[in-house]
Amino acid sequence: MGKRILIVEDEKNIVDILSFNLAREGYQVLEAYDGKAGLQLALEQNPDLILLDLMLPEMNGFDVCRALRTENRSTPVIMLTAREEEADKVLGLELGADDYITKPFSMRELLARVKANIRRSQMPAPDAQPAPQPGGRIQRGRIAIDVDLMAASKDGRTLELTQREYELLKFLASQPGKVFSREALMEHVWNYESYVGDVRAVDVAIRRLREKVEDDPASPQFIVTRRGLGYLFNG
């Protein structure tokens, strides 16, 4: 049985296009045209992924995402937005969205993101993986990452990171001094194979991570930008 995708979008033409292309890829599709109906379907049907518009009648996408995470639903959420403001993207990611894509988008890019987020959500949970080898720890000066516990700390204090932020920090810190382009990070951290498309999600995630890791996010010491090249962990 194909994976189920819930589309929560109030523009019928967009829903029709998405439904047609997703069905052609073998997905089952659920549709909702307002936030309340979308949240109800998400809670009742437990889809494998949700495509969630931000500007919705009845209940906006931010509130839908917040309500889902409050109910401890870990369903991957890709936010669809026509807005360009970085603040919206940061807020969406902070509320628990896994990714976002800005309208107008290419169907190829959207399908790649759907596939990658479903694949990532099906990776074995930590307690289902083989017992970790002792010493699963990365120490980079004031930053420590406990790979076994999937936790990070700074100066002995636990950092409150989302899963994506933790994975981003761990990946960069595991290869200090090495510069990774945004495209490379999309492939290695977001699990988008041979990624081509909008890479601003990396910048949003880096900005949010710096707010939690750096003493002064405006003058980062740990996660450094190499202009025109990408990002590195300085440790």
Topology:
Layout: E1 4-8, H1 12-24, E2 28-32, H2 35-45, E3 49-53, H3 61-70, E4 77-81, H4 86-94, E5 99-102, H5 107-121, E6 137-140, E7 143-146, E8 151-154, E9 157-158, H6 163-173, H7 182-188, H8 200-213, E10 223-226, E11 230-233
Parallel strand pairs: 1-2, 1-3, 3-4, 4-5
Antiparallel strand pairs: 6-7, 7-8, 8-9, 10-11
Can you characterise this structure?
It is a single chain. The chain is α/β, with parallel strands linked by helices. It is 38% helix and 20% strand. It has eight helices and eleven strands. The protein has helices at 12-24, 35-45, 61-70, 86-94, 107-121, 163-173, 182-188, 200-213, and strands at residues 4-8, 28-32, 49-53, 77-81, 99-102, 137-140, 143-146, 151-154, 157-158, 223-226, 230-233. Strands 2-1-3-4-5 form a five-stranded parallel β-sheet, sandwiched between helices. A four-stranded antiparallel β-sheet has the order 6-7-8-9, with helices on one face. A two-stranded antiparallel ribbon has the order 10-11. Helix 2 (35-45) packs parallel to helix 3, helix 4 (86-94) crosses helix 8 and helix 6 crosses helix 8. The longest helix has 15 residues, at 107-121. The chain is elongated and about 50 Å long.
What proportion strand?
15-25%
Rg for CA atoms: 18 Å
What does the average pLDDT come to?
86
Q: Specify the number of helices.
A: 8
Major sheet characteristics? 5 strands, parallel
Category from helices, strands and their pairing? alpha/beta
Q: Compute the number of strand runs.
A: 11
H/E order of the elements? EHEHEHEHEHEEEEHHHEE
- How are the strands ordered across the major sheet? 2-1-3-4-5
Question: Roughly what percent helix?
Answer: 25-40%
* Uncertain segments: 124-134
Overall shape: it is: elongated
The N- to C-terminal Cα distance equals 47 Å
